[in-house]
Design goal:
about 10% helix; mainly beta; about 220 residues; five-stranded mixed barrel; five-stranded antiparallel β-sheet
């Protein structure tokens, strides 16, 4: 699972790294985001007829949710992660995987271990910078769902997860988000489903490390 990540990369750097088409950056003067939680707004990069567009979407595909006790409509569910092995079989993911893949810019992600209190571990890529920017493999959709006030809709995204590598496994033994190599961005956005699916592997452990740990470390601010 990935329920928390950061994106502290400057907007200009994101435009260059993700080859955003001139005039298609909808983020304005994007501020650093040291803690992004489900249902928060954060930048994604997607392919349009005009080129690569960068814009803020809400994290987590939404679905109608009802109370198990009363049957009444409650806050919609937010599906912030999609398992790589379910993309071609689960109804929530199939069409988005085929037609609406996106890049999710990030600078680190967090996994918690233990409870009362939990210890939060922030993972980043190794490099010359403290937090080299990267992109998760993501998908986007226009979520339509019911609430107690009636039907609602919004554009949302989700992050794809795969098996954990040797750096993440001691903290979260099962899953980690898919991190794409820069040379694979175009394949993820533009190629057919088979080529895109082949990218959904754990990132090399030797190229990652833990950059922050602690009981209260629910954000990863710019150093």
């Amino acid at each position: 699972m990935c329920n928390l990540y950061s994106n502290t990369t400057a907007a200009q750097a994101m435009r260059q790294m993700f080859d955003v088409t001139a005039g298609l950056d909808r983020t304005g003067n994007a501020e650093p985001l040291p803690a992004i939680f489900p249902k928060h707004m954060a930048p994604v990069v997607r392919l349009t007829e005009e080129g690569r567009e960068m814009l803020p979407l809400s994290w987590g595909f939404r679905t109608t949710n009802k109370s198990k006790k009363t049957g009444n409509l409650i806050m919609p569910s937010a599906w912030n992660n999609a398992r790589a092995d379910k993309l071609r079989s689960a109804g929530l993911w199939k069409d988005a995987f085929l037609n609406r893949r996106c890049l999710v810019p990030a600078s680190s992600f967090c996994e918690a271990k233990g409870r009362n209190p939990a210890t939060y571990h922030w993972f980043a890529l190794k490099g010359d910078d403290p937090r080299p920017p990267f992109a998760f493999a993501g998908m986007w959709t226009r979520s339509r769902y019911m609430t107690k006030d009636g039907p609602e809709e919004c554009e949302t995204y989700t992050i794809i997860t795969t098996t954990a590598n040797d750096v993440v496994r001691p903290v979260h033994p099962d899953r980690m988000p898919v991190i794409l190599k820069p040379g694979d961005h175009a394949t993820w956005l533009e190629a057919d489903a088979d080529a895109a699916f082949d990218l959904l592997e754990p990132y090399p452990a030797e190229e990652m490390h833990i950059v922050r740990s602690g009981e209260g470390e629910k954000s990863d601010p710019v150093d």
